Structure formats: C-alpha cells, structure tokens
TrEMBL record:
This is Nondiscriminating glutamyl-tRNA synthetase EARS2, mitochondrial. Coiled coil: none annotated. Residues 20-339 form the Glutamyl/glutaminyl-tRNA synthetase class Ib catalytic domain. Pfam families: tRNA-synt_1c (PF00749). It comes from Drosophila kikkawai (Fruit fly). Keywords: Aminoacyl-tRNA synthetase, ATP-binding, Ligase, Nucleotide-binding, Protein biosynthesis. It comes from the Eukaryota. InterPro entries: aa-tRNA-synth_I_CS (IPR001412), Glu-tRNA-ligase_bac/mito (IPR004527), Glu/Gln-tRNA-synth (IPR000924), Glu/Gln-tRNA-synth_Ib_cat-dom (IPR020058), GluQ/Sye (IPR049940), GluRS_core (IPR033910), Rossmann-like_a/b/a_fold (IPR014729). It catalyses: tRNA(Glx) + L-glutamate + ATP = L-glutamyl-tRNA(Glx) + AMP + diphosphate; tRNA(Gln) + L-glutamate + ATP = L-glutamyl-tRNA(Gln) + AMP + diphosphate; tRNA(Glu) + L-glutamate + ATP = L-glutamyl-tRNA(Glu) + AMP + diphosphate. SUPFAM superfamilies: Nucleotidylyl transferase. Its EC number is 6.1.1.17, 6.1.1.24.
Length: 407
C-alpha cells in the first residue's frame, strides 16, 4: 500500500515526468469480453499509441455480488489475442497499483475520510425498507425514484448515537446544484444537472466497499489518467464524477464518450443474442486483425475511406492514423458482411507472407486432423494445402469452412 508521501511524490512524478497521455480500460469482471468492451479497450489503446502514452488495465470489482471467477484472466487473454498490449495493470505492474479495486480498499477509506471531514459526505442510516418505501411512493405518484437526503440533516450527536449502537450505514456524497461543465471530446458540450434527477449518491456501501462512481474517480485521479474514453452509457454519470473531482479539489481528466454499438438495422446489440462475445469470434476462426478493423469500421476515428472494404490496417497503422475527433457521435452500426470480407483479406495477406503462410498451413493441418480424427491417410503435405488455399482463398471466409460439413 502506498504511503501518503510516496503518493505525493508519485503524483509529482506523473505530472512532470510523464506529462503524457494515460488512458485506461476499466472493466468489471462480470462476464466475457464482448464487442462493446473490445471497442472501448481498442480506442483507448489506439489513443495511447497515437500519442506515445500509456494504456492501463484496471479491474473494477467492487460489486462483489456480480463477480465471475476467472473473468479477469479471460479478459486479459482476449485483449492479448486481439493485439492490445497492456502497459500497466494486474500482472503488468506499474507504479500506481494495485490495479484491482478490491485490493485498494484502504485507499478508498482514506479518501472517504477526507470527504467526511470536509463535510462533503455523510453517514446514512436509512434501512432498505425505508428506501424501498420511498421508491414505491415515487412510482405511485409517477415521480422518478430518488433518495430524499434525509440523513444529510442528522446532527453530529444523532450520528454519534447511531454509530455507538452499531447501526449499519452507508456513506453518501452531498450533491450540489452546481453544474460542472462537461466538454465531451466526442459529443461536445453536455449539460446535465445531477441534483435535478438524483438524491445524494452512495459512495461507500454498508459492506465497506466503495461504489463504482467513487472508486472510479479516486483511481482515475491517483493513477494519473489524463483521458477517459468510455461508452456513452456512462456519460450521465460523468457530471456526477465531476462534482466528486471538485469536492476533492482535483483536476478532472478529459472525457470522451463512445457511441452505442448497434446491429446493422440499428437495434441494440445484446449479450443475450449470444454472439457478440470475443470468444465466439475466436472459436469461429476469425483473425484478430479482421475483428479489430471491423470494430473500428463502425465507430470511426479515421479519415473517411470510401474503399473501407478493401483495406485491412495493421495495429501499428491504426495507431498512427487514429484521430479521436473523427470518432462518430452517432450509433455505430456493425455490418457483419464486412467482417467476413476483412477475414478473407486477412487470409489472403497471410498466404502471401512467407512466415504467416507456414502458420496458416499448420492451422489447416490441425483443423483437418481435428475434423477427421479417424482418417490416417489424409494428404496434409504443405504443397497440397497451399494449393487448396490458393485455389479457394477468394471465396474462403474462415479456414474452418474448409472442413465444415456444410461446404
Ligand atoms: N467498470 C465500468 C465498466 O464496467 C467502467 C466504466 C468506465 O470506464 O468508467 O464498464
């Protein structure tokens, strides 16, 4: 755990020595990496690469009820497969770790202490039952459910008495009706006054774990994050985060929200459709670069290319050409046909490189052996496989098509 003076030095160091872009991908380990998550990670990575900055991975696991064992490891593996390199993160230790939020609880407790002390946060003893009644009453009167800030008004003596009795409580942040300006790197000026629609938000739950909002702000600050690029679904929370930065007297990072990723017909991509997981694309045999080019084709970030179909950029080229101001602010439509085209291109590209050609042949050999485990007289000679590949490469979307029965 970092001591305060160490942290001061570190901050000093980050400000002066780095003075460079530091971005992060901050998933919650609640499931598999899917296209939306990959897109967020990718844009952060490309932004860092474009500006010679650092890309951090932070695991946001403060909601202990939603954890999925092994999810973090699988996530790192999927990022690695996609070609996204982590500069700092769990297992890639940097100087501002730990990079897993459940290992940073002491840091959050200290930060909460600061807010309690300067009167920007308070203890709330309201029971679940009371909160539930508030919710029901709001629904009955057709209002948006929100906490009524009751415990804000407890006196110090009342709070002491409740604490002395060991009454369970959480900690809430005092919202003000001041609206911090948000100049979104992708959406431009965004206006939202949190206190118009929400009661004071919980920052520390009764289980002593911080909420997402609180831990996210504290970590982005302590980790020296300069730019936060995340899904647009978080944009509404950003105005709340800005109030937290202000309460601490911290300079907030710059924010850019990435538009929704949607199906070709404009409908919402849903995990329930089962086919947006990166594992799914991997298992079907798509190559990482095809998937990466597919994802950016929907979100923008590059000079408009009329012949996008024909182009497959390497990760390095993508990094060089990426421009945050070119990311779309309208929903990003995915076109699955383009993914197939891109994979075909990638097969062609691999066939033309000496080393990659050898790997391709090996992959086909493995696929054939797997598909026909009982056949001992298969012709798996390199020349033969290359003939087949050269002959079929124009039409071959996936190597798996060579062995699948519906071909
Ligand atoms: N843990 C949040 C998520 O699951 C991170 C959001 C953010 O990037 O701030 O997406």
């Amino acid at each position: 755990m970092l001591k305060i003076n160490q942290r001061f030095l570190l901050r000093h160091f980050l400000r002066h020595a780095h003075n460079k872009v530091r971005v992060r991908f901050a998933p919650s380990p609640t499931g598999h990496l899917h296209l939306g998550g990959l897109r967020t990670a990718l844009y952060n990575f490309l932004y860092a690469r474009h500006l010679g900055g650092k890309f951090l991975l932070r695991i946001e696991d403060t909601d202990q009820t939603r954890l999925v064992p092994g999810a973090s490891e699988r996530l790192v593996e999927d990022l690695r497969w996609a070609g996204i390199e982590i500069d700092e993160g769990p297992g890639f230790e940097g100087e501002v770790g730990p990079y897993v939020q459940s290992h940073r609880r002491e840091i959050y407790s200290k930060a909460i202490g600061e807010l309690l002390q300067n009167g920007r946060a308070y203890r709330c003893f309201c029971t679940e039952r009371r909160l539930d009644l508030l919710r029901k009453e709001a629904l009955r009167t057709r209002q948006v459910p929100r906490y009524d800030n009751k415990c804000r008004h407890l006196t110090a003596t009342e709070t002491e008495a409740l604490l002395a009795k060991g009454t369970p409580h959480c900690i809430r942040f005092k919202l003000t009706d001041h609206e911090e300006p948000l100049e979104d790197l992708i959406y431009g000026s965004v206006h939202h006054n949190v206190s118009d629609t929400e009661g004071d938000p919980v920052v520390m739950k009764s289980d002593q774990f911080p909420t997402y909002h609180f831990a996210n702000v504290v970590d982005d600050h302590l980790m020296g994050i300069t730019h936060v690029l995340r899904g647009v679904e978080w944009q509404i929370s950003t105005t709340k985060h800005l109030l937290l930065y202000k309460a601490f007297g911290w300079q907030p990072p710059k924010f850019g929200h990435l538009p929704l990723l949607v199906n070709a017909d404009g409908t919402k991509l849903s995990k329930r459709q089962g086919d947006i997981g990166i594992q799914h694309f991997r298992q079907r045999g798509y190559f990482p670069l095809a998937l990466i080019n597919y994802v950016v084709s929907a979100g923008g970030g590059f000079e408009h290319r009329t012949n996008a179909k024909q182009q497959l950029l390497s990760m390095q080229e993508l990094g060089e050409q990426f421009q945050i101001e070119r990311v779309n602010s309208h929903p990003s439509r995915l076109n699955p046909e383009l993914l197939d085209d891109l994979n075909r291109l990638e097969i062609g590209k691999r066939l033309s490189g000496k080393e990659s050609r050898g790997e391709l042949v090996k992959q086909v050999q493995d696929l054939v052996k797997e598909a026909y485990p009982k056949h001992s007289n298969l012709d798996l000679a390199e020349d033969h496989i290359l003939d087949v590949l050269n002959w079929s490469s124009q039409r071959l979307t996936l190597l798996q098509d060579l062995t699948s029965s519906n071909n």
